[in-house]
Amino acid sequence: MTGRGFKTTQCEVAMKRRTFIGAASAASAAAAGWSCASASPVVNATPEAPSVTDGGMLAGKTLDKLREEHRYWLFDDYLSFHDRFCVDREFGGFTTSLDRDGTKINTNKNAWFEGRGIWVMSYLYNSVRNDPDYVNVARMSVDFIMKHNPLGPELLPSQFTREGEPLTGPAQIFYGDMFVANGLQEFSQASGEDQYWDMAKRIILKCLDIYDHRPNYGNLPKTETSPEVVSPRKLGHWFVLLRSTTQMLEKRDDPELKAINDRAVEAVMDYHYNPAYDLINENINHDMSRIQSDHGQLVFGHAPETLWMVLFEALRRKDKALFNRAADLLRRHIEVMWDDVYGGLMLGITHVDKSVWNTGKALWLQEEILIGTMCVIEHTGAQWAKDWFSKMYTYVLEKFPLRQYGHPLWILYADRFVTYREHTSRLGNFHHPRQLMINMNALDRMIERGGKVSGHFG
């Protein structure tokens, strides 16, 4: 998928899934207020409960034990490897083309991973541990990327040498710039330098203008079964706009960013959402209409990822109705995309009506579910969220940590069975530490409340 910039096994198979009987039956079930994936109503499916645990336990463990496990995987496992092999203290930035033992595949740097790394180190300082070295590491990456003028009219190059020479021309899609903007807005708080928040806003406005007006932006190619789709709207674009603006609005009110935030929420929940099968499509037409070819059939892992970001935005707004709707849709996507045979969430449904699946297992997708269900647990105590968090957490700890194979870190991408491979070519420097930090902070709050739900909505 171009929206992620990664290789998958693309193990796409036609599967008979109990959750898909066809669009007509799905629509009728939805109209009746029932999920096609379960025997429980989707309307008001997130009732509040008094506790975030069941008898003091979540995923079979106390909150203190869960918190300690998150601390271990973040500090003792991930950050120790990251500091030793990924951080470039000579030229600044992050070297992410690494094998399992830290051997460098190459020393090139990537705009995506610079922006992501800036965010991780800044958030680590702001929200987890006030170690000034985290700010120093983030600043070195900021200095590295600012040499290439992300405030200019063009998008940043995708790749750089270790020293910072561009290896490509401007990128074709805006993810690199958006990740840099997200990093800068978080760095503004860590450094106490407000100009970086202002820079982040300018980059976001540039990216949105390109997304709206650049001819042939992100075209979906012509295939044997589908015509070309010119300048489609992509779910992966809306969620980076949404998440960045949510965080920026938490720091400072801004009418322009609020308008972008509102637009992103509406795009996700009203336009990419497909009532025919109660799922969120990855692609729609530029005018926000539904694509009538096979290109319009994709439901990707971005959908449940986006939904936790809608949950967080609903918390910022104190919009309980939006929170509940996002929670219900998150549950729906988990139940549909869960692999009943081998566990975990599959990467996506390539064609909903034909039931064609991409059965690869990506760590980032599993961890998005951990963030989303943890959020629902903290603020409602809903039993379904506790059950799914427990199921996913158990699965992830069984399958993905490389400690069982004698290595640090976790498997990043895998086939349906999460088959171990001796070598890899990339360190994931974003989704994994993000999940550990966000959920560790949630656990801290839950422990502080004595296991009671937050009462955020009154």
Task: Describe what you observe in this structure.
With 458 residues, this protein is an alpha+beta fold. The protein has a domain at 90-214: Glutathione S-transferase Yfyf (Class Pi), Chain A, domain 2, CATH 1.20.1050. The chain is built from 13 helices and 12 strands. It has helices spanning 23-31, 63-86, 111-128, 132-146, 175-191, 195-213, 235-251, 255-272, 302-317, 320-337, 363-380, 383-399, 431-448; strands at residues 12-14, 109-110, 159-160, 233-234, 273-274, 279-280, 283-284, 299-300, 348-351, 356-358, 361-362, 413-414. Strand 5 (273-274) and strand 6 (279-280) form a beta hairpin. Helix 7 (235-251) packs antiparallel against helix 8. The radius of gyration is 21 Å and the shape is globular. The relative contact order is 0.15.
SSE diagram, text form:
Elements: E1 12-14, H1 23-31, H2 63-86, E2 109-110, H3 111-128, H4 132-146, E3 159-160, H5 175-191, H6 195-213, E4 233-234, H7 235-251, H8 255-272, E5 273-274, E6 279-280, E7 283-284, E8 299-300, H9 302-317, H10 320-337, E9 348-351, E10 356-358, E11 361-362, H11 363-380, H12 383-399, E12 413-414, H13 431-448
Antiparallel strand pairs: 1-10, 2-3, 4-7, 5-6, 8-9, 9-10, 11-12
Helix pairs in contact: 2-13, 3-4, 3-5, 3-13, 4-5, 5-6, 5-7, 7-8, 7-9, 9-10, 9-11, 10-11, 11-12, 11-13
Q: Which key features would you list for this structure?
A:
458 residues; alpha+beta; Glutathione S-transferase Yfyf (Class Pi), Chain A, domain 2; four-stranded antiparallel β-sheet; two-stranded antiparallel ribbon; 6% strand; globular; disordered N terminus
